[in-house]
Specification:
The structure is a homodimer of 258-residue chains. By secondary structure, chain A is an alpha/beta fold. The first copy, chain A, folds into 2 domains: 8-92, 60s Ribosomal Protein L30, Chain: A; 98-255, SPOUT methyltransferase, trefoil knot domain (Alpha/beta knot), CATH 3.40.1280. Helices cover 36% and strands 20% of the residues of chain A. A 7-stranded parallel sheet of chain A has the order 7-6-5-10-8-11-9, with helices on both faces. In chain A, strands 1-4-2-3 form a 4-stranded mixed sheet. In chain A, helix 7 links the parallel strand 5 (108-112) and strand 6. In chain A, helix 1 crosses helix 2 (20-26) and helix 7 runs parallel beside helix 11 (239-255). The A-B interface holds A 123, 126-127, 129-132, 155-157, 160-161, 193, 195, 228-238, 240-241, 244-245, 248-249, 251-252, 255-256 and B 123, 126-127, 129-132, 155-157, 160-161, 193, 195, 228-238, 240-241, 244-245, 248-249, 251-252, 255-256.
Chain lengths: 258, 258
């Protein structure tokens, strides 16, 4: 059993928890908690770390995977949560390509430009799976999808919704358009109500930063600016809320008349 | 200038920040930050507290209201945020009655049963104003709407959307039904897709607790159980996300064919 915080493996895990750069260098991220642990595709688990109590109560979960036991203190030290459940795992990243998300039968893609809140990103991924999106394209400065808070708020969708970080979002949007996908930007200047377009064929929605919205150089690559009507004195909606309204409107159309 | 944390007024503010019971006893709550301060109806401000720096930079905001200056240290001590903006205010509660929210022209009501996350509640209020809801009915064990986190996440909608805490939610739901309002419960057992009903006449949606959903004794008072379809392996949606989908579907119908 590992009982020292200074142990090399433990130091490695803490770095992977905290640092996006370390995660990228090692193509590895950390998944914590029993619900999320059960969602990990088994072949992507590099190694699990559990407290003795968790291990003894859930021994079947460890069949066929490499694992180590750690003391309660060490687990608390590694954990990203206030009430640790006693299980985490190192998981191999799986990189999708733009073609993976652009060439599904009827693409429905979320394009995320500079979103910063980890919980918002996770909520978009989780809700997006429910609405039937086929993939997510993220600008390189969007919050890291492997941030522990993002992973947790995806509730497992991170393992099922393909996503790609783009080094050149404008260029990748043009690639989507060349494949016949219509690109809609949610924008306060939009003249077109979000319920008007027909989302039955390949469609993509761009959502921007929580306070600044979508960058101008990205907006101009959209085919159509759409707006979500807001009554009362509401000036804006939370980014994940706006994404939800758009994704479920596309889902509604696709379930019905398409 | 108030320079001591032990000052009676400061202790009072800290209690109002932290304790729902104190807020109820005094019919007073605390609003923090410049954006939210500007949203407060002026006649409801009891007293404002500002740092000298904030006051000097925003002197016009203090015309006609009672205020006190406090040192930076005292402000940090009172503040609910990590990076305080130097302004907060004591605000008088304004209580709505069930009839206020039930007797608007075409009621669209959110009924909240035991929701626990302050941010979720605030997001429902903010998004609800945008979607055009006419009021909110909350079970008495729902998180306190005057929680500083809830207030912040309403982005000001708390001053514009009428709400009522109910001592007997089942009874109040029956009152709404007797006024001709159709009550829909979002429920995993729902057979009816949420897009099927006609929400053009008086309608209300019940949303439940983040993990337990709506209590059974409340569910049975609904006219219709509706479901939000979820693709992939998604088992549930965040409560504020589910509320958003329902409220904006009602808004979509009301903007179009009603």
């Amino acid at each position: 059993m590992i009982t020292k915080n200074g142990n090399t493996e433990i130091k490695n895990i803490v770095n992977l928890m905290k640092k996006s750069k370390t995660r990228q260098e090692k193509s590895t991220f950390v998944v914590e908690g029993i619900k999320m642990f059960c969602e990990i595709p088994r072949d992507r688990i590099i190694k699990a770390y559990a407290t003795e109590k968790f291990y003894e109560e859930n021994i079947k979960l460890f069949e066929g995977i490499e694992y180590a036991l750690v003391s309660d203190n060490v687990f608390s030290y590694m954990s990203d949560t206030k009430t640790p459940q006693g299980i985490l795992a190192l998981v191999r990243m799986k990189k999708a390509k733009l073609s993976d998300i652009a060439e599904s039968e009827k693409p429905l893609i979320m394009i995320i430009d500079e979103l910063q809140d980890p919980g918002n990103l996770g909520t978009v991924i989780r809700t997006g799976e429910g609405a039937g999106i086929t993939g997510v394209l993220l600008s390189k400065n969007t919050v890291d999808i492997y941030n522990p808070k993002t992973i947790r708020s995806t509730m497992g969708s991170i393992f099922r919704v393909p996503f790609v970080y783009s080094n050149d979002l404008a260029k990748d949007i043009d690639i989507l358009k060349n494949k016949g996908i219509k690109v809609y930007a949610s924008h306060l200047d939009g003249k077109c109500n979000y319920t008007e377009p027909d989302y039955c064929s390949g469609s993509a929605f761009i959502i921007g930063n929580e306070s600044k919205g979508i960058r101008n150089e990205i907006v101009k690559h959209a085919d159509t600016l759409i707006k979500i009507p807001m009554k009362g004195q509401v000036e804006s909606l939370n980014a994940a809320i706006a994404a939800t309204i758009l994704m479920y409107e596309a889902g509604r159309q696709r379930d019905g008349s398409c």
